[in-house]
Fold this sequence. Notes:
Blueprint: H1 2-39, H2 43-49, H3 51-62, H4 65-81, H5 88-95, H6 102-119
Helix pairs in contact: 1-2, 1-3, 1-6, 2-3, 3-4, 4-5
Amino acid sequence: MKRDNQEVAEFRTIFRDLFKQILGETGVKVLEYHFRRISSSDMYVLLSKNPSEFYKVLTRFFGAGAKAFIRIIASELIIRFGLEDISIRELMSILMGECDDSQHRLRELVTRIRARDVGGGP
């Protein structure tokens, strides 16, 4: 349970900051509110546990713009964290839950990002 809470906290730290950069603080609050209203779930918990369901809820909120939002997120993750070993398309597939192992791969990615933040290196 403690591991799950720590993992969700890592997702929240990385993705909330990223969403804030894209949408602004007010935009993130609006997204979080509507996400919870639509799904009855915390969006960072859902992203860490079920990327496919996370994307479905985003689609209900953004409509056709959900894919563009995911593309921006993927691009920013790659640029911000120097993820040179993954393409935007591949990261989009992971974030949208299109891969059989999306949850596992996304968790590994977050672990790598956090290790870089803490350790200061690749």
